[in-house]
Design goal:
Radius of gyration: 29 Å
Bound molecules: adenosine-5'-diphosphate, zinc ion, magnesium ion
Distance between the termini: 62 Å
Structural class: alpha+beta
Strand order of the largest sheet: 5-6-10-1-11-12-13-14
Amino acid sequence: MTARAVETHEADEEGSRGEFAIVIGLEVHVQLETDTKVFCGCATEPTNEPNTNVCPTCLGLPGALPVLNEAAVEAALKLGQAIDAEVPDRTRFHRKNYYYPDLPKNFQITQYDAPICSDGEIEVRVGGDSREIGITRAHLEEDPGSLGHARGGRRTSIDAAEYTLVDYNRAGVPLMEIVTEPDFRDPAEARAFLSKLESVLEYLGIFDAGRDGSLRVDANISMVPADDVAAGDSISADVLAAANRTEVKNISSHKGAQRALAYEVTRQRNALERGREIAQETRHWDESRGVTVSMRTKEAEADYRYFAEADLPPLEVAELAAEIEIPELPEARRERFGSEYGLGREAASKLTSTKAVADFYEDLTTEFDPGVAATWVADELLGELNYRDMAIEDVVGRLDEFRRLIELVDQDEITETNATTVLREMLDAGDDPATVIEREGMGKADDDEVTAAVEAAISENPEAVVDYENGEDGALNYLMGQVMDKTGGSADPGSVNGMLRERLDG
Ligand code: ADP
Ligand code: ZN
Ligand code: MG
């Protein structure tokens, strides 16, 4: 969106109130998929037994020393390559000190002055527009443990809790903190970015979106005078620094990010219009109430007393970085789907939006016509999933059933119309296609049945036959509808059309 677009948009929507442009920057924590934790050999695999994947190191017991996991470094370098980031020859770790029950050492090992990646970018598309979002830095750190607030044995929110339980299974799971430039001008762009980031991470094989808490977002947002947005959408460092911003914490989904930011836009704009100042503060996103609430004034960097982690030597990464190879990324795959399977841009984008979808589609092309498979996956399957607020991850265990359904259509066992109904039933009732078809009697009608239905439709509707003979367009469609009704939708529309014409014209 250009500066002009910002103003027009504001003016359209808000009439005389169009004085501010939205500025958003994200800090995203993502868990890296490694078998073991970043500074010890404990498993990262989630388990329901609290405090079982732990050892002296991740419990912060005296004398236990960290040892860096090479797999975590490799994952970080893969991300660096994917986002075209600068990687220093040598990097190091720092201690970020704070006292909190989820942090047994009372400091978090993180990176400070030499992040493993800096100055990268990620392209996002919103509507028809494409934007480059700058990645300021992406650094490696350890996850703290997780706290569970409870009351009477049940989980509850922090303010309703009687007590809090701590689980250190997560303590020491490798994280990347990815910090963007304040390049977003709209909550929808922030959401699109998170989807794109997740997709890139999954393509790289270093992230599991299905894992609880694998993506956590802090969203920074401020309003600047619309006049201060220069051509090309740039905003000067002075203007950015002068704008009071809020940092919204506790966001755990793409949709949550967009909702929290939209809430802040309204709240900040309302305050500014009443001549009030926006407090520079940290706010908490309350997902169930759909509001942000003030937590505290923002801590400053000095509060953390960063100092170099002396238990870990500086890390020479140049050699390792040179050896890193990454797989095909969403954009490249989208291009290839276009050229290799003859797909249009929209279909190719949908089919490459997540790795799971792209893999499923590409697997289908070995058996079916790529265009047919594209329609089934991009329009039918994704459409029905989307309608139910589901994603491919929710049905990964059932991909063979969807393949079977396409096979049944391909082999002329059921009609396309019925196949759509079967798909819906499969998703709603959780049955496999054969069960649905059997139950609903949706197998394709045999020829005798269709012939009988054609005869019946003609003899029962003499007016329509006369209309047809008088050249009225609707008559044939009407008769077709009658035949489809009689066969419960299981006749092939093309052949019914042919049979009717043959009978009426003959
Ligand atoms: P801090 O030192 O307070 O953490 P940083 O400069 O590291 O601040 O920026 C943190 C995040 O805030 C980044 O994602 C950045 O893009 C974002 N940010 C910076 N200025 C603004 C602003 N005026 N409005 C919204 N977000 C901003
Ligand atoms: Zn451990
Ligand atoms: Mg910062």
